[in-house]
Batch of 2 targets.
Target 1
Amino acid sequence: MTEDIKLSNRLLLVASYLPKGANFADIGSDHAYLPCFVCQQDPTATAIAGEVNVGPLSSAQETINKYNLNEYVEARLGDGLSVLQQNEVNQVVIAGMGGSLIRTILENGKDKLSSVNLIITQPNVDEKNVRNWFMENHFNIQDESILEENGHIYEIIVGIRVNNATTLSEKEQLFGPKLLAQRNELFYKKWESERVKLIRVISQMQNAKNQDREKISKFQEQLGWIEEVLEDDHY
Ligand SMILES: C[S@@+](CC[C@H](N)C(=O)[O-])C[C@H]1O[C@@H](n2cnc3c(N)ncnc32)[C@H](O)[C@@H]1O
């Protein structure tokens, strides 16, 4: 009997957003732990594990072989959504990379998304890019989560296809509309740490020989929003 795959809490939470019987792509799958876990738990699910690098692709294939999941999970080499045929999957997962790379992958692979109604992302940084792409491409934010693991705070942003996406303010794009409404303890912890980082960045930019005034004032505006939100801290 093959053993059960163990996932990190981060990937477990990502996986929890997939419906039963999911037919999905995990882009940037690395070891393919997530698609293998999902298909092991749910024999009605199928997945494509996409990888742009040969090393992680072969790790993905090893995991698929180890757990006898070749019938359910297929590893494919390629950049972003280019590994997919038209109308091949209904959900897409992109986890564990920066928000701007996730945005680029979605933007460059738009033609492969017509059958996709759910996109689950877990950007490590620059989450704003993902929210902005969702808003501009007919996806509403269905849910957001925040969790801490191994000293890192992660956000998960889930987009669902709609006819008319809700407009998000710049502030909502930064903090996340759902996370901003909830404002749990971890949210405050994250933004306190971002506040400290931003103050340091602004001060370095102000001391530079050639100051980028536009960028400084953009960052100062963000700092203002962060301080405003933190002032509401009632913990
Ligand atoms: C840090 S790992 C994350 C693995 C897994 N998704 C997770 O969340 O634990 C990022 C993976 O994305 C892959 N990657 C980066 N850019 C990619 C792209 N444009 N298309 C497909 N895979 C990509 C990398 O090779 C790497 O294996």
Note: The chain has a mean pLDDT of 96.
Target 2
Amino acid sequence: MKILGILGSHLDTGVTAMTMNELMSHVQQPNTYEVVYLENYDFKPDIFGKQDPVLDKLEQKMLESDVWVIGAPTYWGNLAGQMKDFFDCMRQRLVRFDHTGGTHPDRFKDKHYLSFTNCYTGEFENFVTGVTDQTFRTIDKVMTAAGVIKIGEFVVPGTYGMKELPAKKKRICEKYGNKLNNVKKRDDSTMKRYIELFVMICVMALITMLIQLGLGLLPKTDFFTVYISFALIFFILLACILHFMTFVKHRRR
Ligand SMILES: Cc1cc2nc3c(=O)[nH]c(=O)nc-3n(C[C@H](O)[C@H](O)[C@H](O)COP(=O)(O)O)c2cc1C
């Protein structure tokens, strides 16, 4: 597994860089990592007929890696400009366009990403006011368009005057660092899981309704019509809720 850290901050010695280094210190063999500090790459947007060679280099690194760690500070309540500029310049390469200009995942589909940000705002205030929410929303929007799967996100708040990462944040870096070591390639067993769920519902509904029948709580007529319709309706509703919670809702998170 190759892990690529993308550091989008003004300083390569600031809190974002410290967090990136702390995370990467937990990457274990045979996994490998590399961190690109965007300030060291003088990229420009591609122009028609001429691809930017610096973007070519960065794109190659992104293609060769399995997991991206995207780290950038929150500036003015949003993603810091360096990272945003990188995403803007990479747009043509991150997605495929259809004939109406709609975007679709392309070559980066099913890679994984972890995102983190930081801000002066303290933990409680950030929890209440969501200062860093828009930063993650912007990252998630780009990654979702590119079909890249999210591993997680975290914030280092209260960074004013911070010279070292607090122990609590180091533990979070350790947790996510371990996650980076164990990212599984996308398994496409979604259909299998829904079939298993359907079987479980059928079995449980049958047992429950037979008990109800035994207790005289269900009419004996049309038992199987009632049973089959119950199992089907229950499964469809549960599957819709699960789909919403796992795909639609998490697309933003
Ligand atoms: C231009 C700019 C805008 C900022 N805007 C915010 C902000 O809106 N909210 C906040 O809590 N902190 C804000 N900050 C503070 C940064 O988020 C904080 O300094 C961050 O931890 C810097 O990361 P670094 O040490 O990696 O550079 C801003 C800092 C700069 C330079």
Note: The mean pLDDT is 93.
